[in-house]
Amino acid sequence: MKQRIGKNRYVAGDYLVKSDRSGRVFLRSQMRKTWDGLLVHHSEWEPKHPQQELRVIQEQNIVDETRVESDNDADLLQKVGSVDEL
Fold first, then answer.
1. Do 39 and 33 meet the contact criterion of CB atoms below 8 Å apart?
2. Separation of alpha carbons 40 and 26, rounded Å
């Protein structure tokens, strides 16, 4: 059974709390904490969006075959062919 609360109504073991989001007053038993620490009414509560908890996966950029840079472009052209083929 839900209890309505007036300004002068007493509910044993419960107390009034102001919502951080709307500023309205509710019973503490009707309040929930959000993921960022706000105390809000259960009708104002929203779960944390899954996109905010993405984990970054490190890419492994490893070059399989490394070569020393040549000062002579002729060596490169002999291996590749002509410049037009590039």
1. yes
2. 9
- DSSP tag of 11: -
Three-state SS for the chain is CCCCCCCCCCCCCCCEEECCCCCCEEEHHHEEECCCCCEEECCCCCCCCHHHHCCCCCCCCCCCCCCCCCCCHHHHHHHHCCHHHC
pLDDT digits (tens, 9 = 90+) for 45-59: 888 888 888 888 888
- The pair of structure tokens assigned to 62 is 């490893």
Other beta carbons within 10 angstroms of residue 40's beta carbon come to: 20
Task: Please indicate, yes or no, whether the overall pTM of this predicted structure exceeds 0.70.
Answer: no
22-51 pLDDT tens trace: 999 999 899 999 999 999 999 988 888 888
Secondary element (H or E) of residue 26:
strand 25-27
Site of tokens 């970054």: 56
